[in-house]
Design goal:
This protein is an alpha/beta fold. The chain folds into 2 domains: 102 residues, Ribosomal protein L30/S12 (60s Ribosomal Protein L30, Chain: A, 2-Layer Sandwich); 156 residues, Alpha/beta knot. It contains 10 helices and 12 strands. A 7-stranded parallel beta sheet has the order 8-7-6-11-9-12-10, with helices on both faces. It has a 5-stranded mixed beta sheet with strand order 1-4-3-5-2. Helix 6 packs parallel to helix 10. The protein is elongated, with a radius of gyration of 20 Å. The protein starts with a strand and ends in a 9-residue tail after the last helix.
């Protein structure tokens, strides 16, 4: 049974990790992260991911509605309870969802470790230069919806466990495994060595996406809107495009990913639904 701990002072040191959420998001949390909202918290607490909830901060008026989520928590997971006004002072903005959690990241295993753990049939996303947290969240939401087995990030991608990315993904960043390539690490060489075929999506792709058959072990490569994938990556991968109306050559990266993942997985039931 979770411990309910009243908080009346926004400067109470027990809730220091929740202070001024937006400002601290910008500088990082030394292995921690903030998640918000009932849907996201349900994924964190019951979704089978490897990240761990350390504490919760809840609007007292929401306790009854959130009982099914809070009651099963063990004693060592404190649930801090505050009124809306105190909650807002702690966070630094209006928390209209009425619930936050502070979590700890799972230990990093690196891109090579994630690739080594893939099964005989596997599909991963490989992301280059995705710096927008909305796009990152949307990409992870798509990954969860279509049963992707992991997401690999280059060194320039933003953090999937930034609060906004978690929220936009409806908790998928807490569930879908991810790892980051080190600066200078050759992503395509690692994939090739592991027998994972690189499929690069680009407006200039050599083949149309429609009708393609997904290899048993495949990586869908996506770049940032605007610059797209680096030329050296496109030169070493099998490239595909989504045909579009004349005069238009691009989609939002999360939208393009959803189309591509649907095509790649349409013959198989999703292996990892959220």
């Amino acid at each position: 049974m979770a411990r309910l701990i009243p908080i009346e002072d926004p400067d109470d040191p027990r809730v220091i990790v929740y202070r001024q959420v937006r400002e601290r998001d910008l500088v990082g949390r030394q292995g921690g992260f903030i998640a918000e909202g009932e849907v996201v918290l349900r994924v964190l607490l019951t979704g089978g991911g490897s990240h761990r909830a350390v504490s919760l901060l809840v609007d007292g008026k929401r306790l009854e509605k959130l009982a099914s989520l809070i009651d099963p928590l063990p004693d060592e997971t404190p649930v801090y309870v505050a009124g809306q006004a105190v909650l807002d002072q702690i966070a630094g903005f209006h928390i209209h969802r009425g619930i936050l959690a502070y979590g700890l990241r799972a230990p990093e295993r690196g891109a090579a470790g994630l690739i080594a753990g893939l099964g005989e049939r596997a599909l991963v996303l490989v992301l280059h230069g995705i710096a927008n947290h909305d796009n990152m969240g949307g990409l992870f939401r798509n990954a969860a919806a279509f049963g992707v087995h992991g997401v690999l990030l280059d060194a320039t991608c933003c953090d999937p466990l930034y609060r906004k990315a978690i929220r936009v993904s409806v908790g998928a960043t807490l569930k879908v495994p991810f790892a980051r390539f080190a600066t200078g690490e050759d992503a395509l060489a690692l994939l090739e060595t592991a027998g994972v075929e690189a499929l690069a999506l680009s407006p200039s792709g050599a083949e149309p996406l429609a009708g393609m058959v997904c290899p048993a072990r495949a990586a869908l490569l996506l770049g940032a809107e605007g610059p797209g994938l680096p030329a050296e990556v496109l030169a070493r991968a099998r490239t595909f495009r989504i045909p579009m109306s004349a005069g238009w050559d691009s989609l939002n990266v999360a939208s393009a990913a959803a189309i591509a993942l649907h095509e790649l997985t349409r013959h198989d039931a999703p292996a990892n639904p959220l």
